[in-house]
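Appendix B. One record, verbatim.
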Amino acid sequence: MNPTHNIRAMEPGEEKEVQTLIGPIFDEFVAPLFSKEGIDEFYSVLKSKYINRQAKKGTLYLFMEDEKTLEKIGIISVKHSSHISLFFIKKGYQGRGLGKKLLLTTIEWCRKIKPDIEELTVNASPNAVDVYRMLRFEKIEEEQEHKGIRFTKMKRILENQYFEDITHHQECNEKQ
């Protein structure tokens, strides 16, 4: 039997858990590609006060949890219902399709908030570009650096792909 994973919005008071979840993943996979300035800049957006302010401005933070243990295994945050600002899955859970499930659920949430959304954008870290390509994002600009953070601007057009993915997502959930 496959484990089931819940996806839910971050609740007030859980801001610190964002850093607790993301920190080790970032340190292992992304930090080695950034300068000290970039690492410091990245960690500045993981501070509880910053996350709290962003959430109050409408940034959506969704946790993915193991249904039985309630262990947080993934997170995504989306600004303005159209720009992914954080997207991480714990190391032991990567490569199992959980990131895709989290992304598709996020698209559903964004559609409820902003029904006319046409695309989702992201500033992908160098090691995440191929993952985003597998999730149907395309590169729209070459890699750049800002405040020590290296990224490639990417987007995913939602108009036609959205319904196909949601159907696939629902079929996968029915098999679980």
